[in-house]
């Protein structure tokens, strides 16, 4: 992962005792060159860099030495949820063609050349692309119960390209094994910056299975790349067990079974 400069770290330390009203987020902004971003994890996760601040000094080590810096008897609390394929993409249905008066079509043809006028068929995706990013279950409100829902569930979601989705439901067909499933999304009320989205599908599959077949794993936008197949395994912590996260706790990605074992050997608890 990328690290801020020592100057920024010292600045942050100096501001620790400041009144909150005098602290401005803009003061903590710094340029992050693309070449300094770790777009993919190292083959051995715990060989990543570890920034150490101790007794006013800043130094650098590797992550597998983390247990050496923690006091015996310390307790670490881990988020053991697995990242789900929380990004869904739909195409807004194109408005059905309605025949215009003949003279109107003739006038239009003088100004616009239609690529389909000669009977050709376009293979370009039709309709606006709408992205739905699920954030928090609405109905059922409990994560595991929601993931086990069949036929219907609701989530609070961020919606990309919302201005193109004014009315109506969105639909897409997905394949699960030998079955074709029609997944529909209907926009509900706004909740702050998110919207409640009602999802329905016409088979007996669970919502977890629907997401597995149609969703995309979300990765941080600062990586400046698309999701890849390898992210399905590398963008999960080694201790993740329960489905329910829409983003990995990135600091946790550096832990390995060996580091967890060393924590135990050093008398450091883990929950």
> Which class best fits the helix and strand makeup?
alpha+beta
Biggest sheet layout: 6 strands, antiparallel
Gross geometry = globular
How many separate helices? 6
Distance between the termini: 25 Å
Q: What order do the SSEs take from the amino end to the carboxyl end, as H and E?
A: HEEEEEHEHEEEEHHEHE
Strand content: 25-35%
> How many structurally independent domains?
2
Q: Helicity, in percent?
A: 10-25%
How are the strands of the biggest sheet laid out side by side?
Answer: 5-6-7-10-9-8
The oligomerization state is: single chain
> If you average the pLDDT, what whole number results?
83
Report the uncertain regions. Answer: 1-13, 97-122
Number of strands: 12
Overall description:
This protein has helices at residues 6-14, 102-109, 143-147, 207-214, 231-234, 257-265; strands at 49-54, 57-62, 75-76, 81-83, 87-91, 129-139, 152-160, 169-176, 179-191, 194-201, 242-245, 269-270. By secondary structure, it is an alpha+beta fold. The protein folds into two domains: 6-79 and 252-270, QueA-like (3-Layer(aba) Sandwich), CATH 3.40.1780; 85-93 and 126-216, no CATH class. It has a six-stranded antiparallel beta sheet. A two-stranded antiparallel ribbon has the order 1-2. A hairpin with a 2-residue loop joins strand 8 (169-176) and strand 9.
């Amino acid at each position: 992962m990328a690290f801020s400069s020592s100057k920024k770290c010292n600045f942050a330390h100096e501001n620790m005792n400041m009144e909150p009203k005098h602290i401005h987020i803009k003061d903590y902004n710094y340029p992050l060159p693309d070449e300094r971003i770790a777009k993919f994890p190292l083959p051995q996760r715990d060989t990543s860099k570890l920034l150490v601040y101790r007794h006013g000094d800043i130094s650098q080590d590797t992550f597998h030495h983390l247990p050496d810096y923690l006091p015996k008897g310390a307790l670490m609390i881990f988020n053991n949820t697995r990242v789900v394929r929380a990004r869904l993409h739909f195409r807004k249905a194109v408005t059905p063609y309605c025949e215009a008066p003949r003279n109107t079509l003739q006038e239009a043809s003088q100004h616009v050349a239609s690529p389909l006028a000669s009977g050709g068929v376009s293979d370009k995706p039709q309709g606006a692309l709408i992205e739905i990013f699920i954030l928090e279950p609405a109905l059922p409100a409990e994560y595991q119960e929601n993931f086990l829902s069949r036929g219907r569930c609701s989530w609070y979601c961020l919606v990309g390209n919302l201005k193109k989705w004014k009315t109506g439901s969105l639909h897409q067909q997905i394949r699960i094994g030998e079955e074709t499933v029609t997944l529909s999304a209907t926009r509900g009320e706004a909740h702050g910056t998110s919207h409640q989205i009602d999802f329905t599908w016409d088979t007996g599959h669970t919502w977890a299975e629907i997401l597995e077949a149609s969703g995309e794993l979300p990765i941080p936008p600062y990586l400046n790349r698309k999701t890849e197949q390898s992210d399905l395994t590398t963008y999960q912590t080694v201790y993740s067990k329960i489905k329910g996260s829409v983003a990995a706790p990135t600091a946790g990605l550096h832990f390995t079974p060996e580091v967890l074992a060393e924590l135990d050997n050093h008398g450091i608890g883990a929950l």
